[in-house]
Backbone:
């Protein structure tokens, strides 16, 4: 049975669920904004605890990564991601989730060949690209900047 492109398009449209674009965007915005607001609250909390600015920023980042890894391990992060979609991809928490998820999935294969080897399956290319981009940027800055600066 041959179907034309027009018939196929109609079949796909009929079988596809209706788009919930506004709802999905709202959930993503609210979730991502909440994660960022939590990061800001943590920063201010650590500042009030007496940390200097750079240490307060570091501690809030460490706390967000730790919470993201913990929530991934407990299975809460994936449930949140199903509902919030792209809102959970806030870089620091999404990256922690991308490292922990494969490690959790392949832990039955052992510490070395499972957790160690699979931990950076998703995050590895991001790390490599980030390091490479920073080296290229550093070289460009070195050769373009006057030597006295």
Residues:
């Amino acid at each position: 049975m041959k179907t034309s492109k027009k018939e196929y398009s109609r079949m796909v449209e009929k079988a596809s669920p209706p788009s919930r674009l506004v709802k999905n965007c709202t959930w993503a915005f609210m979730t991502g904004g909440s994660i960022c607001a939590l990061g800001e609250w943590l920063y201010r909390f650590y500042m009030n605890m007496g940390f200097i600015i750079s240490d307060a920023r570091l501690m809030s980042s460490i706390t967000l990564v730790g919470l993201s890894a913990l929530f991934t391990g407990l299975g809460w992060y994936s449930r949140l991601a199903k509902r919030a979609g792209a809102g959970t991809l806030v870089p620091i928490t999404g990256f922690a989730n991308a490292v922990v998820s494969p490690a959790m999935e392949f832990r039955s294969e052992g510490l070395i060949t499972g957790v160690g080897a699979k931990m950076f399956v998703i995050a590895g290319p991001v790390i490599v690209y980030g390091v490479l981009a920073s080296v290229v940027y550093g070289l460009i800055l070195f050769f373009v900047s006057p030597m006295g600066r």
